[in-house]
Amino acid sequence: MARIEQMFYAPSTVAADYRLEPCRVALNRVKGMSFRWSLNPYMGCAHRCTFCFVRAFERMADRPSDDRYGASIRVKPNVVDVLRAELARPAWRREHVVVGTATDPYQPAEGRFRLTRGALRALGEARTPFGIITRGPLIVRDVDVLAEAAVRADVSVTFSIPTLDAGIWRRTEPGTAPPRQRLRALRTLVDAGIKASVGMAPILPGLSDDPRLLADVVRAARDAGAAGVWANVLYLRPGTREHFLDHLARDWPELMPVYERLYARGAYVAKDVLTPVRTRVAALADRYELADRRTIRLEPDPSIPIGAEIQAPGQLALPGWDGPLAG
Q1: Does any domain span residue 322?
Q2: Tag placement on the chain: N or C end, fewer CB within 10 Å?
């Protein structure tokens, strides 16, 4: 398993302390979003992105939101069993679940604990539609589970790729795999019939909002087979704000006055900053003709009963690794 982690993560990934904390609930109700349910097998994230919005929640919970964030990962060892019990309740209506809203489900911890894999299998067997948000190419290990789930319910994956610029990536996402490695993972899923898109978030004013850099991501997303792309600009709440600005002052001090002005009134940038970025990305998506062009399309089959055993459409081999992705 260590070999897999080495393949999929950047050299700067630091060792984390894993704390086993059993959970009482697996599915969490979400308010104010386009979906009602979220699932996070882990809390805390070894990716340590300087802009991570979860730092704000950690601060409110009186936990470290500074450079110590990500050094201790809270693992929910019973999350799969709890999830299966919740999905079996008569009241469950198979509403859409988003996996990875508060922490990346494919951070290095998943290589060891495999809780995301178990949770996805449970969701698929219960015919519950789900989407995944990740920066972790380790997801290709679970292409068999995703394929099995996709013939029971709607399944989609969003890869977070705000920029391809190596300098910006290294300074702001120190524990993540390189962006182009995520794009290769996206291509693997698309070739297996899984719908996958790119989320360009967060876009950093004065850095990754450069029109050429935006175009690079959209063009690369198209080449990798992404079905679509969307964008959002950096959101800074207390906890995230202090940490991000500390790093900005170290890496790009000339931008400090810009950020102090943009975020003077709160966590959001003004519409006259946000709208042009979204409009440009949408125009680029049209220009490069992003569309769902999967040659294999795994679609839900209503005739498959809940919990039925089925054979995944196939197994894929990962170059450089001498084992199957299933297992």
Answers
A1: no
A2: C
The H or E element containing residue 248 is: helix 240-251
Phi-psi region of 199 (alpha: psi -120 to 50; beta: other; left: phi over 0): beta
Determine the structural domain holding residue 9 and report its residue range: 2-287
Domain assignment of residue 40, yes or no: yes
- Is residue 314 in some structural domain? no
The CATH number of the domain holding residue 26 is 3.20.20.70
pLDDT tens by residue, the chain, 327 residues: 444 444 555 444 557 899 999 999 999 998 877 889 999 999 989 999 999 977 766 666 677 667 777 778 999 999 999 999 999 999 999 999 999 988 999 999 999 999 999 999 999 999 999 999 999 999 999 999 999 999 999 999 999 999 999 999 999 999 999 999 999 999 999 999 999 999 999 999 999 999 999 999 999 999 999 999 999 999 999 889 999 999 999 999 999 999 999 999 999 999 999 999 999 999 999 999 999 999 999 999 888 887 777 766 544 444 433 333 332
| Total domain count, the chain | 1
Q: Considering only CA atoms, which of 185, 183, 215 is closest in space to residue 285?
A: 215
Report yes or no on 292 lying in a domain: no
According to DSSP, the β-strands at 27-29 and 37-39 are antiparallel
